[in-house]
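name: query_chain
kind: protein
chains: 1
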Amino acid sequence: MTDYFEFYGLPVSFNPDAGLVKKKFYELSKKYHPDFYINESEEKQEEVLELSTVNNKAYQVLSDPQKRLHYILELKGLLTEGENYKLPQGFLMEMMDVNESLMDLQFDPDAERLAALKVEVDGIEKELSGKIGALTASFESEDVEGQTRLLTAIKDLYYRNKYLYRIRESIQKAESAI
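structure:
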């Protein structure tokens, strides 16, 4: 896995300087533009094309907070493909109530109850975002042990958010049915 932070010469950060990320992107876009290497060997052209692709991917990831959060957790070895992460029982119980309400709304559509459920989910999402924001803000100032502890907590919130995203999709379906 390419380390996009290293590629841009930046420290791993959940909140990198957006201006600096954009500046690095433009700088490397010029440096690795395939048109400048048209007279080079095929190997050199392929290398430049690869670097140009890495630059585009790095910019997409580092300039998007959600993609960046996922990427850092992956980069630090905390996310693995097909991982069966166990969410806390309390959170799952809360989500079970939300899912039950959604199922009830499928059989008995009610715009008011749906609106109230949406407000409830918005509140949960806002609380999660606040917690993620607080943890990611202090990440860089921590030592390695502290960063590891924060990453573990961030991973848990990441999976909760992912679960909530699926609920939000169900709410949108329910809205379109009413």
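note: Residues 105 and 137 are 39 Å apart (CA to CA).
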